[in-house]
Design goal:
With 200 residues, this protein is of the alpha+beta class. The protein is built from 6 helices and 9 strands; from the N terminus they run H-H-H-E-E-E-H-E-H-E-H-E-E-E-E. The radius of gyration is 26 Å and the shape is elongated.
Length: 200
């Protein structure tokens, strides 16, 4: 028994189905893959981010996780003590800078040490050990390579608030005391402070 001949309308239907499947496959291939979390940042949630948000992160803990150096910086409002470190991660290098919380008397003492100098000065490892009980007041983390912002969201969740800025976006995590500068979908800066400081 001979097969019935295909009409032109049948060919059009086959072509439409083929185009539909091709378009669907193309659309699925263009969907972004699920972002991989930053493993170290997930681990730092309990060790660094939460204690700092609660105003209770000692320098000793940060220096244990990210060995670095203590620097004395002259400033118009009084000298600052900052701890600097560089960390090699799976995605590349990150630079860390933490400012220590100081009392007015400690600032006055540092001013005597600094004198009239205007250049920042590295401090000895002995002094770092003496000050290891001081609390971290601010922590800035800067990626030295391109890190997609989606990886941050995969690590600690979506931001509570996203604000458009002049040159990108600010992602705000009030509970973690974290604000993030994002430019073209890439992380530029993670800025951590005690959550109480975000209310002012």
């Amino acid at each position: 028994m001979p097969l019935p001949s295909l009409r032109s309308s049948h060919w059009l239907l086959f072509a439409a189905v083929a185009v539909l499947f091709f378009a669907l496959a193309l659309w699925m291939s263009r969907q972004p893959a699920k972002a991989e979390p930053l493993t170290w940042l997930v681990e730092w949630q309990d060790m660094v981010i939460v204690p700092l948000a609660e105003g209770d992160l000692p320098l000793a803990k940060l220096a244990e996780l990210a060995p670095g150096e203590l620097w004395l910086q002259p400033r118009a409002g009084g000298p600052r003590l900052v701890f600097r470190a560089e960390q090699q991660r799976k995605e590349g290098a990150w630079r860390l800078e933490a400012e220590l919380g100081l009392s007015e008397s400690e600032r006055a003492s540092l001013l005597k040490v600094l004198g009239k100098g205007r250049e920042e000065q590295p401090l000895s490892a002995d002094l770092l050990a003496q000050l290891d009980g001081h609390r971290v007041a601010v922590l800035n983390m800067v990626p030295m390579v391109e890190v997609p912002a989606a990886r941050l969201a995969a690590s600690i969740g979506p931001p509570r608030l996203r604000l458009r800025t002049g040159d990108g976006e600010a992602w705000i995590y009030p509970q973690q005391g974290l604000s993030v500068h994002v430019l073209d979908g890439k992380l530029q800066l993670l800025h951590l402070v005690p959550r109480e400081a975000m209310k002012h």
